[in-house]
Design a protein that fits this description.
This protein is α/β, with parallel strands linked by helices and 364 residues long. The protein has 16 helices and 9 strands. It has one domain: TIM Barrel (Alpha-Beta Barrel). Helix 12 runs parallel beside helix 13 and helix 15 runs parallel beside helix 16. The longest helix is centred in the middle third of the chain and has 24 residues. The two termini are 33 Å apart.
Length: 364
């Protein structure tokens, strides 16, 4: 069933995105449909804690895997074969869209992502190039199409992108940080240039998500990993309009979207205003409190502490059941961690979480 509208086609004459004909459990939860149990998947469920992924990384860099669909498909499917969650999330990196904008990206050993020619002065914003997603990120879109073709209809495929503020932070900081001093300094001193940067990133992000939807994504997630470092006023003034643009474009397709940020307890109402059928909660905010604050017309995703997976199995199961009980069977809950799976996480712990959720029965 094709969906028309400006956002669905991204204004480029390409086919509109499509609503999945057979909604998955995840899509049903996003649409607040009653289910006998919530769907379960885990952020970073494909990655360094899996021995099969580590074996692949011995032969290929992260960017090499992302650039070769056959490798990215294999990594995406590794946790599905091992644990059978209700959704696969596309294996990619949130920084891929900035590369065709003219940014030099590499992953240095022990440093994580390094962007050597990011945004340091207002003039740097002007040199960032527009991006043709279908051309520049074709390997990622081919990966998503292949994953959707490989998986049975009952397992959802989640596409994703980094949110404009998180991408802007990487560009300004030149890599990972825990202070965001450069980002905030640029934001405060060069407000017009920062707004221009966010506008460019919002357009690229929206186009990227729409490309993934056209390629078969059943749902998409916007990761605003670093937005929790902002005050509510700064979020409202510098971020909210651009986040809304992304979600407005996705909403026109009819494919549900999840909005996730880390340490966003002070921003939940603003994240709700930003958009998304589902708001992700990290482990710092109790699920029931977070759901009350975002409103029961939205779903919520979360929110087991990733560190809880290092507890004994019985404790992992108890904590998982406690979150399920806190959700109370209300339609719209997607079980997940409060952030990504940590690299040292025991495999049995991941299986315990997924098995516990799958054996749960929501109260009548």
């Amino acid at each position: 069933m094709a969906v028309t509208g400006a956002g669905a086609g991204s204004g480029n004459g390409r086919p509109a995105a499509r609503i999945p004909e057979l909604p998955t459990r995840l899509a049903q939860a996003c649409r607040l449909q009653a289910l006998e149990r919530p769907p379960v998947w885990l952020m970073r469920q494909a990655g360094r804690y899996l021995p099969e992924y580590r074996a692949l990384r011995e032969r290929h860099t992260l960017l090499e895997i992302c650039a070769q669909p056959e490798l990215a498909v294999e990594v995406t499917l590794q946790p599905i074969r091992r644990f059978r969650p209700d959704a696969a999330i596309l294996f990619a990196d949130i920084l891929l869209p900035v590369v065709p904008m003219g940014v030099d990206l590499e992953f240095a050993a022990g440093e994580g992502p390094v962007l050597r020619n990011g945004v340091h002065e207002p003039a740097d914003v002007e040199r960032l190039k527009p991006v043709d997603i279908e051309d520049s990120l074709a390997p990622t879109l081919r990966t998503l199409r292949a994953v959707r073709a490989e998986l049975p209809a009952d397992i959802a495929v989640i596409g994703f992108a980094g949110a404009p503020f998180t991408l802007a932070s990487y560009l300004i900081e030149g890599g990972s940080t825990r202070r965001f001093l450069r980002t905030k300094t640029f934001m405060y001193r060069h407000g017009a240039a920062f707004d221009g940067l966010m506008a460019k990133l919002a357009r690229v992000t929206a186009d990227y998500l729409l490309g993934q939807i056209r390629s078969g994504a059943d749902a998409v997630q916007l990761f605003d990993s670093w937005v929790g470092w902002l005050s509510p006023d700064d979020y409202r003034d510098f971020v909210l309009p651009h986040t809304m643009l992304v979600f407005d474009a996705v909403r026109e397709t009819g494919v549900p979207a999840i909005h996730f940020g880390v340490d966003t307890g002070s921003l939940l109402e603003l994240l709700r205003d930003g958009g998304g059928e589902v708001i992700g909660l990290d482990w710092r905010t109790p699920l029931a409190e977070g759901w009350r604050r975002v409103g029961y017309d939205r779903g919520v995703q979360g929110n087991l502490d990733p560190a809880a997976l290092f507890a004994p199995t019985a404790e992992i199961e108890r904590r998982t059941r406690a979150i399920l009980a806190e959700a109370g069977g209300r339609p719209g809950h997607i079980f997940n961690l409060g952030h990504g799976v940590l690299p040292e996480t025991p495999l049995d712990a991941v299986q315990a979480v997924i098995d516990t959720v799958k054996s749960w029965e929501n109260p009548e």
